[in-house]
Amino acid sequence: METLKDFLAAGALGNLSWGNLGMIVAGLLFLYLAIRKDYEPLLLVPIGFGILIGNIPYAAGMGIGIYEPGSVLGFLYQGVTLGWYPPLIFLGIGAMTDFSCMLSNPRLILLGAAAQIGIFGALWGALWLGFDTPHAAAIGIIGGADGPTAIFLASKLAPEYLGAIAIAAYSYMALVPVIQPPIIRLLTTRAERRIRMKPNRPVSKRMRILFPVVAFLLTAFIAPGAITLLGMLFFGNLLKESGVTERLAQTARNAFLDSITILLGLTVGASTQASRFLTPTSIKIFVLGAASFAVATAGGVLFAKLMNVFSSDKINPIIGCAGVSAVPDSARVAQLVAAEEDPTNFVIMHAMAPNVAGVIGSAIAAGVLLAALR
Amino acid sequence: METLKDFLAAGALGNLSWGNLGMIVAGLLFLYLAIRKDYEPLLLVPIGFGILIGNIPYAAGMGIGIYEPGSVLGFLYQGVTLGWYPPLIFLGIGAMTDFSCMLSNPRLILLGAAAQIGIFGALWGALWLGFDTPHAAAIGIIGGADGPTAIFLASKLAPEYLGAIAIAAYSYMALVPVIQPPIIRLLTTRAERRIRMKPNRPVSKRMRILFPVVAFLLTAFIAPGAITLLGMLFFGNLLKESGVTERLAQTARNAFLDSITILLGLTVGASTQASRFLTPTSIKIFVLGAASFAVATAGGVLFAKLMNVFSSDKINPIIGCAGVSAVPDSARVAQLVAAEEDPTNFVIMHAMAPNVAGVIGSAIAAGVLLAALR
Amino acid sequence: METLKDFLAAGALGNLSWGNLGMIVAGLLFLYLAIRKDYEPLLLVPIGFGILIGNIPYAAGMGIGIYEPGSVLGFLYQGVTLGWYPPLIFLGIGAMTDFSCMLSNPRLILLGAAAQIGIFGALWGALWLGFDTPHAAAIGIIGGADGPTAIFLASKLAPEYLGAIAIAAYSYMALVPVIQPPIIRLLTTRAERRIRMKPNRPVSKRMRILFPVVAFLLTAFIAPGAITLLGMLFFGNLLKESGVTERLAQTARNAFLDSITILLGLTVGASTQASRFLTPTSIKIFVLGAASFAVATAGGVLFAKLMNVFSSDKINPIIGCAGVSAVPDSARVAQLVAAEEDPTNFVIMHAMAPNVAGVIGSAIAAGVLLAALR
Amino acid sequence: MDNDTLSFGLEISLIGMGVVFVGLLLVTGAITLMRRLDERWQAAERQGEAAALTAAPTIDSTTLVLLASAAATMVAGRHRIRFVRRMLPGEGAASAWSVTGRAVLQGSHVMSQRPRGN
Amino acid sequence: MDNDTLSFGLEISLIGMGVVFVGLLLVTGAITLMRRLDERWQAAERQGEAAALTAAPTIDSTTLVLLASAAATMVAGRHRIRFVRRMLPGEGAASAWSVTGRAVLQGSHVMSQRPRGN
Amino acid sequence: MDNDTLSFGLEISLIGMGVVFVGLLLVTGAITLMRRLDERWQAAERQGEAAALTAAPTIDSTTLVLLASAAATMVAGRHRIRFVRRMLPGEGAASAWSVTGRAVLQGSHVMSQRPRGN
Ligand code: NA
Ligand code: NA
Ligand code: NA
User: Fold this and answer.
1) What is chain A's mean pLDDT, rounded?
2) What pLDDT digit, counting tens, does each position of A169-182 carry?
3) I need a surface site. Which of A36, B207, B266, B347 has the fewest CB within 10 A?
4) Distance (Å, rounded) from C-alpha C316 to C-alpha C189?
């Protein structure tokens, strides 16, 4: 009978907590949003199921839990805590992304720079709420709207908040269709939203090959802290564009990227054990994250209006919202908002430019914060 | 001349032992069975070649051997000793398995439960032969007829016998076509073997999506020790069924599963160095393993007959043998034995239900043993 | 302002050195040769971009650099320093290589043995230049013209020169079309270069299956130090030829091989930080490497002429150059040189035999050196 | 070999088989329950499907938008659509990033229809 | 640089080249031997092939069983087979688990032919 | 929460946004410059293309050599080419090793056309 008692004590029922139940409900919600609402399923399905795995209650000491030494989940989680999943994901993303939208309309890149204000806005807010500087920086990066960049920086500056930061970043990325439209409408006139832009110009193969090399050298020289992320992103893109390494690019954007995505999503989800995750701090982080997305969106839109003051060739300020990255959702948001006003106005190709520029911008910002605070 | 002497001393001839020769012959036998007889080639080819690699004699100190610190084989073997290959294989298996056979005929799941008696029978036998409890449990799990589950539990409870347990499990899985038929015939009447079962009912996409989530929560709550294995299995299955993560499922069941299979098989094989593997204990382990398969088969078949006592809708007891898992070989055995009696009787679709249920059952049993003995 | 100063001090401009600029130019040259000249792009693109990544100047302490503890690049570089990338690449190569050219004309294998003289010539030269024996051996292996073999041996015998040895090996492999033709012409008469050889004989599936097993046992018994490399090479080949493990071979030669190739090339490139790489020793290593390629080529060609003295069935000595491996470039060189003399003379199928035999030969030589010097 | 061990073995065997059966019985029950609910849902579905057959879009919104935008650009530039590239299965999966890939990929095809350098 | 080192270098070079040649000579010999044996085997094979051409099954037993069972179910349920899905190469490889996949996959196709909810 | 922290936050924000803008401005500038140069190159290219259309080889040299050698062997052995296998995309990529694969693969096809055992 002893054994039975021990076994039950080691079991779920012996260790159940309301927190775990709450998190399990949250995990089920993630799965629902991903599978029924199609919100970023490639991220939310692994994260959602990971939340379930991480919140099944059990007695410590079996070497099961992600925070227990020697556990398999803990082993796989190292890719997150040591920060090497994110650069590998950037490698695959680079091998998948076509930068010609940026190349054909370079001035739109600046919208991707402006949107990074969300990062520093949230950073400041976090300081104001009493976080110390490295933690505040890690929280601010949520405004970059790039999961990998957020995880990479958080793993270096605020490991203890990594779970909350990652979940916040991915949640809001999935929610851009909800967050951005009202802000866009608030800050733009009907006339501005109806602006039509010139179709993109063609981009030669040579430009596409030279771009990743040139862009890497320029950005890395400016912000060496971003070498790891930008190096992988542009390396992947060179594999794609070089024309002589197609088989490597194929693997990088398929088997390679998928494998890392699965492991990263699952372990990030599993790291949200109620006992560590359900804290007042996490709530603060989620509030700051939401604010950072709002500020970033506003930053992009307003900067577009500012550029229109000085340029005769007008930009449709809607596409400023795409500067937050969250590729490609925010670009799709721009298209949908534009279509509301004029169904025959197609801005998505233009929106892709600030969209991918925002990825580079966030990585640079992360590099600066890493250099200044590490 | 010194150098030459040293070199020869470091060479194979300087370190040859009968044990190594015996193991090399065993490895060649594995390759023969896999390539000519098509017995589980995806497992036996890597294991067989691994046995060759592990038994080439050499002088220690070159950092070659799988048990030498800093050797490449030793590095790759960590996936086995730390137990993270098995869950990753379960991820791929989940992304490959269609559970609708179970969903369309749920009562057959119980046959997969009954067959687990083989595990505890062997456990008891091992205790009787004088093994201490954790070792006995690790040996018993051979009766689960699941390589990954066996390796996972053995790596936690009996690392020193891991090689023997893994080789025994995979060998007998490959030999089910030899082991099971006589037992089935012994325990069933001709009439029983001719029983025809109703065709399966259809299963909706929604059921297939809900199943992995519901099944994971239920089983994990009952046996948290199985979280790692069942979590990966059902997560992989959700990737497959969700309909929105097909590209992840594709990778999980192809490149990902294949890569781990190669490394696991090769290193498990290479871990069978004669000096460690050829021991009386290994012989005991093989005997107990054979017994556990027999008991498990009998358990499944007899339980089917028991269910027939209480149900008007008769089950063909042959399919009980599929409860041991060893997917899908034992289900094929069921089909072949049934076809002997009546070539127009197709039981394989029904046999798949206990077959996959047996995988879940063994994982639960492993979870219980881990929780009770770790 | 302090912060800004610190930031600039941490930045590229604060840490710029002529060495870094020089290496960046070298990296760009690699990319140019790979993309425009199509010299081994699958190796030179990752290495070239890695050189850029490794030579962006920055202040230490950010955990960015490949030699900094805890950096992502350093983590990925472990596959090189611990030497487990090379065997995994050999696994993929084995799953890709068809040895039937060797099987149909076995005597040509000896050309692949003769070419290994380049290894020991360079070893002797290195001793003469004052390197100690293990370092000399690691430098000599450049003459094997096999990147993975060179990296594997260097990681064990001369970690401090690993970068230089790897870059030298890959550079000269890409340059065989430049290095070999003059040597071939110098050592052969016009008549010899016009020799036509009998077409190859057919090879049965059975031979192809038996070969990797038999060849592994023979070579591993002779040189156990080569177990890791040869084991993986022949295991991969068995996966390809067995006919029952095609899906494993597929993965091994595609997703698996590509992933490792990307990571190996990138990290080897990134390991060439000017401060460590631009040394007189590196120059010596490059000189010895060039010499070893020349000696190896001469060895292969002259041995072919020697064989012609004793055999009536003449060998076209051009194909001796393929014995250095550098698969398949040196075999293509042989074809091109032969075509100069007689455009209707196709020696490439014959050249493939010493070409792949050279891979085995170099691995054996590496095994001997490892056994004697480790 | 003492009795304690064997009795312990017996005990753990009973618990083990018990838990295995309880666990799989729960699964069996859950499936049976789900089937019940599913029957009803399916009824609703069948009607839905009927409607869907007429309404349902066969390509996802982004692609639609892109094709439209492509078409628009064509018209604007007075060009004809030479081809519409089918998605590969790999790309076809709704990966955020592959959608990007597709988005910009298709975009650039559109662009590349326009005469060079204008 | 002393003589010992150089003589050691010479020694190791001789041993090294020696071992390389012995190793590859053994391989050469083994291949030649194997070819001999193979000649005979092939003779037997050629006859075998002739027989095979008439006898050899073109799909593996499991698939056969499955198609049959599918057919059987069809008949039982008075339905026609709408399609028989060809194996993809990836799946086609004799992977135990992919066979499962196939087995159950095909099974479910069979099932899904039957009118919903009965 | 003291002022130092906030002022430091302000400072780092200014530096951060500054660096982001400088970095992306440099990229913008570089792209614009590259476009200029590209225009000229393209002119040259367009002529090149014209020439290429007539001259350009449609398969890489190795393959060419192999097909030729195949053909040669055929003639030598008085056989007809039964088929020429198209490269698979995976293999098609210019991987040194896959080229080997192809080289020898094709070679062996050629060989296997010859009657067994002669
Ligand atoms: Na961003
Ligand atoms: Na089982
Ligand atoms: Na070589």
Assistant:
1) 92
2) 999 999 999 999 99
3) A36
4) 11
Query: Is the Cβ pair B242, A13 closer than 8 Å?
Result: no
Instruction: Say yes or no to pLDDT of A272 above 50.
Output: yes
A255 and B252 within 8 Å at the Cβ level: the answer is no
Reported as a single tens digit per residue, the pLDDT across B97-127 is 999 999 999 999 999 999 999 999 999 999 9
What's the one-letter identity of residue C193? R
Query: Which of the given ranges, A218-222, B261-265, B367-371, has the highest pLDDT on average?
Result: B261-265
Closest-approaching ligand to the CA atom of C297: 3
| ipTM field | 0.85
Alpha carbon B104 to its chain's center: 25
DSSP-derived letter for residue D87 is P
Q: pLDDT confidence of D43, banded at 50, 70, 90? A: confident
For residue A235, the tally of other CB atoms under 10 A from its CB is 30
Tokens for A167, please give them: 């979940």
**The pLDDT of residue E2 is above 90:** no
Q: Do D73 and B246 touch, CB atoms closer than 8 A? A: no
CB A108 within 8 A of CB A357: yes
Find tokens 């006992």 and name the residue: A275
Amino acid at C350: H
Q: Show the tokens assigned to A191.
A: 């006339």
pLDDT at position C63 is: 80
Interface test with F, best of A251, A368, A370 (most F CBs within 10 A): A368
The amino acid at B276 = R
- Ligand 3 centroid to residue C73 C-alpha, Å: 29
Tokens 């060495």 belong to residue: C19
How would DSSP label each residue in C340-370?
HH-TT---HHHHHHHHHHHHHHHHHHHHHHH
Residues 6+ away with beta carbon under 8 Å from A245: A238, A239, C41, C42, C45, C46, F93
Compute φ and ψ for A347, nearest 5 degrees.
-105, 0
Is C202 a residue whose pLDDT tops 90?
no
Q: A364 CA to chain D: closest CA distance, Å?
A: 20
What is the percentage of chain F residues whose pLDDT exceeds 70?
Answer: 37
**Cα separation, C4 vs B129, whole angstroms:** 73
Which DSSP letter does residue C146 get? -
Three-state SS for chain B is CHHHHHHHHHCCHHHCCHHHHHHHHHHHHHHHHHHCCCCCHHHHHHHHHHHHHHHCCCCCCCCCCCCCCCCHHHHHHHHHHCCCHHHHHHHHHHCCCCCHHHHHCHHHHHHHHHCCHHHHHHHHHHHHCCCCHHHHHHHHHHHHCCHHHHHHHHHHHCHHHHHHHHHHHHHHHHHHHHHHHHHHHHHCCHHHHCCCCCCCCCCCHHHHHHHHHHHHHHHHHHCHHHHHHHHHHHHHHHHHHCCCCHHHHHHHHHHHHHHHHHHHHHHHHHCCCHHHHCCHHHHHHHHHHHHHHHHHHHHHHHHHHHHHHHCCCCCCHHHHHHHHCCCCHHHHHHHHHHHHHCCCCCCHHHHHHHHHHHHHHHHHHHHHHHHHHC
Element (H, E) at C282: helix C280-310
Residue A272's nearest CA partner among A7, A2, A11, A30 is: A30
Whole-number Å distance between alpha carbons of C104 and B269 = 31
Rounded Cα distance between D23 and A15, Å, is 18
Question: How many other C-beta atoms lie within 10 A of the C-beta of residue E43?
Answer: 12
Q: Which of B40, B202, B331 sits opposite E112 (nearest CB)?
A: B202
- B 119-148 residues with CB below 8 A of D? 119-121, 123-124, 127-128, 130, 132-133, 136-137
Q: Which residue has the higher pLDDT, A119 or C7?
A: A119
> Residue B207 has which token pair?
């059921």
**CB-based contact E39 F116, cutoff 8 Å:** no
Mutate which: F111, F116, F118, vs E, most E CBs within 10 A: F116
C324 contacts C330 by C-beta, under 8 angstroms: yes
Identify all chain D residues contacting F42, using CB atoms and an 8 Å cutoff. 116-117
